[in-house]
Amino acid sequence: MRFGNKAFRTWLERVTSNADQMLEGMVPVKEAIPEIKVYLIESFGSLERIDYGTGHELNFVVFLFCLLKLGVYKPDDAKAVINRVF
After folding, report:
1. Contacts of residue 36, Cβ cutoff 8 Å, sequence gap at least 6
2. 3-state SS record for the chain
3. Which of 5-19, 40-54, 56-70 has the highest mean pLDDT?
4. CA distance 63 to 57
5. How confident is the model at residue 3 (pLDDT cuts 50, 70, 90)?
6. 64, burial (CB in 10 Å: exposed 0-12, middle 13-18, buried 19+)
7. Cα dihedral sign, 24-29-32-36
8. What is this structure's pTM?
9. Nearest to 4 by CA among 42, 44, 55, 61
10. What is the widest separation between alpha-carbon atoms in the chain?
């Protein structure tokens, strides 16, 4: 048994089941959603281990990079994105 809060599993299951809907309103290239959805979901932690670590943080950074490459925000917005997110 891990030390994490078991309610996290319910929350992450909801994130997973709603990820497509969340991304559809944000991502202009719909074909990219299946790939970037993985980075988004993995950035919140491990469902099995109920933990969070640097690998999960890296997934979120890659998710933000994907959004940049898809044109959701521009390079000039990077400073504002970093300041708002982190």
Report:
1. 23, 27, 63, 66, 67, 70
2. CCCCCCHHHHHHHHHHHHHHHHHHCCCCCHHHHHHHHHHHHHCCCECCCCECCHHHHHHHHHHHHHHHHCCCCCHHHHHHHHHHHC
3. 56-70
4. 10
5. low
6. buried
7. negative
8. 0.85
9. 44
10. 45
